Amino acid sequence: MSQSAAFQIVLAVKELLTEPVMASVVASDVRIDPIFPSDVASGTALNVELGNDDPPDRFVIGMKDRFTELKLTAIATGANATANVDAVIYEANSRLMADETLGGLCYELSELGVSRFNEANGKRLAVIEKIYLVKYRTSDNSI
């Protein structure tokens, strides 16, 4: 089965964030599918997903520059939720910035915005969403 370059980037980021295992979140709780607070078994989790794509830019015949958002959503529950969710995002960001080409899949990875949410409705919950802009190239007939 073929995959878009953007999905290959998501898979590469997941691998980067699970091998070796992060200190702040277990590998099984780093996911590419949506995470709900009830899914967080170990107290912390990290979701890696694609956001919106800007229109591609055809810079030469046969090639397109593409720009997509990459979202990391960290979730933590429990008494130290705020500190724990911060640790997940800090460690994940450090790993991403250590290889800003994501193993050669992109030519630039830059940070965009950060959103933080805290709730104490039932279970204590803290969430940080960090967004990156990933710039990569494909052939004209690929995505």
Main structural class: alpha+beta
Helix share bin: 10-25%
General shape? elongated
Rg over C-alpha atoms, rounded to the nearest angstrom: 16 Å
How many angstroms separate the termini?
14 Å
CATH architecture: 2-Layer Sandwich
- Per the CATH scheme, the topology name is Alpha-Beta Plaits
The largest pleated sheet is described as: 5 strands, mixed
Strands of the largest sheet, in order across it? Answer: 1-2-3-5-4
Please mark out the parts with pLDDT under 50 across 5 or more consecutive residues, or reply none.
Answer: none
Q: Give the amount of beta strand, in percent.
A: 35-45%
Instruction: Report the count of strand segments.
Output: 5
CATH class (first level) name: Alpha Beta
Give the domain tally: 1
CATH homologous superfamily identity: Phage minor tail protein U
Tally of contiguous helical segments: 2
Question: How confident overall, as mean pLDDT?
Answer: 92
Helix and strand sequence: HEEEHEE
Question: What does this entry look like structurally?
Answer:
The chain is α+β, with helices and mostly antiparallel strands. It has one domain (5-139): Phage minor tail protein U (Alpha-Beta Plaits, 2-Layer Sandwich). Helices cover 21% and strands 43% of the residues. The chain has two helices and five strands, in the order αβββαββ. It has helices at residues 5-16, 81-98; strands spanning 30-31, 44-60, 63-77, 108-119, 125-139. The chain is elongated and about 55 Å long. It starts with a helix and ends with a strand.
